[in-house]
Amino acid sequence: MSDQKMTSAQEKKAERTKLFEDVYSGIIPKRVPIKASMTLEAALEYSEIPVGKTLWDLDPENITTAMDRVCEFIPSDTPAVGGILKNPAVFKLLGSKGYSMGQTGYMQHTDLETLKADEYDAFIKDPYTFIVTKSLPRIFENLDTDSPRAGMVLAEAMKAFYDHQAKFNAIKAPVFKKYGYFTPPAGANTLCQASFDLIGDFLRGVKGIYMDVRQRPEKIIEACEAMLPMQVKRGLPAKTHKLGEVFMPLHLGTYLRKKDFEKIYWPSFSKFIHIMAENGQTASLFCEHDWMRYLDLLQDLPENTRIQFEYGDPKVIKEKLGNKHILSGLYPITLTKTGTKQECIDKAKEMIDIMAPGGRFIFNFDKSAMSLDTINIENYAAVIQYVAENTNYQNAGATARGPENTPYEKPDTTVSSFASPFYTNWKDVPKTEIEASLESTVDPLLQSYEDMLYRMIFTII
């Protein structure tokens, strides 16, 4: 790469980073930032590179080719191609019953029950212990044994997980650098489900959780509250940064009656978001499906919560939340498949006219491009190009619209420290004399390995 190109990429990265710094700080940016991406699987399809094989071998040439081809003509401010959703080697080593690779090469998920209806009390007593001793063996058949082989399999899976992650990061880093994308500081982003969603996704299954809403709602409430120490540990990085976030895909709450949502889903969820904010970690919510019934509740989240909507009325959402939170989404990605290029651009103009005034807006589609057959990539690129070239603010640098000082009852954010017999706090472990003299080195190193396993467990479930 020539010095001139490197300089251009560095300048582009600095400009894009400033867009997000401004938006996240309540300042009108130079123009509307763009945060749109397709999956690596979709990018591989676009370059006619086998998806399944590449997810297994992570061939650097194939991945670079696929990413380069997409990034070259899609001017998103964040990487135009996202990361790998699931690592097939890990699931094969563990004998997963929940994830497997389909004929297209995409990883597919099966709904499973790993917490039985009569086991809530055991789960509430210690959620992490239950997950490790009961749920993991029920979803991964190679862990469902008293044989030492289970420990060996888990070690193999952890090695595969982090090798795969490191290899992919090494492949994508020069591509991201080449195109000057905004990327949050390393380690500043985390991922966490709402407690209700985690129960429905991984523990009770979708059918089980909605049956429990009718038959044992109080147990769900207790379980969601009991999970908070574990959830907080997941959500907080080692060091928070204003450009980082805890990303939360929210998808089961919209199928509840509003009164059930308010009683069962919302209390632990709102408490978690406020705990994150108090510790300097902003929540980034993907409100899947239609959250229009819950807009008044969303108003009561901490200021500058980042909210991407899938469906809803943009005008109402902007009116109710646009002065307090940072909004994105709502552009129907299916239109890029069904509409003409001009229809797609006209829709972008409409969305910008509604959502951009006053700041606190990041352009994004209602969902990522999960596969190539969900979009017309030329129309998709044209929409992003339009936004990049036609959304300059006349009052850049001014303070964004602020929220009305409407008081609301903030949740009690008291939460116990995370502790479990299956998670070791190495600072509490007795040390030899030499280990004690090296405590400032020994403890963080050992703890890092404990946390690596913890992070992996909540990535694969």
Topology:
Elements: H1 3-24, H2 40-46, H3 51-57, H4 60-71, H5 88-94, E1 99-101, E2 107-109, H6 120-125, H7 127-139, H8 149-179, E3 189-191, H9 195-203, H10 205-215, H11 217-226, H12 228-235, E4 245-250, H13 258-278, E5 283-290, H14 295-298, E6 306-311, H15 314-321, E7 326-329, H16 335-338, H17 341-355, H18 377-389, H19 433-437, H20 439-460
Parallel strand pairs: 3-4, 4-5, 5-6, 6-7
Antiparallel strand pairs: 1-2
Helix pairs in contact: 2-4, 4-8, 5-8, 9-10, 10-11, 11-13, 12-13, 17-18
Report a brief summary of the structure.
By secondary structure, the chain is of the alpha/beta class.
Instruction: Let me know the average pLDDT.
Output: 94
Write the element-wise H/E pattern from the N-terminal end onward: HHHHHEEHHHEHHHHEHEHEHEHHHHH
Largest sheet: 5 strands, parallel
Q: What is the CATH class designation? A: Alpha Beta
What is the total tally of β strands?
7
How many individual helices? 20
Across the major sheet, the strand order is 3-4-5-6-7
Q: How many distinct domains?
A: 1
> What separation lies between the terminal Cα atoms?
40 Å
Structural class: alpha/beta
Whole-angstrom Rg: 23 Å
Record keyword descriptors for this entry:
alpha/beta; TIM Barrel; five-stranded parallel beta sheet; globular; 20 helices; two-stranded antiparallel ribbon; 7 strands; 461 residues
Describe this structure in words.
The chain has a single domain, classed as TIM Barrel. The chain is 51% helix and 7% strand. The protein has 20 helices and seven strands. Strands 3-4-5-6-7 form a five-stranded parallel beta sheet, covered by helices on one side. Strands 1-2 form a two-stranded antiparallel sheet. It is globular, with a radius of gyration of 23 Å. The chain starts with a helix and ends with a helix.
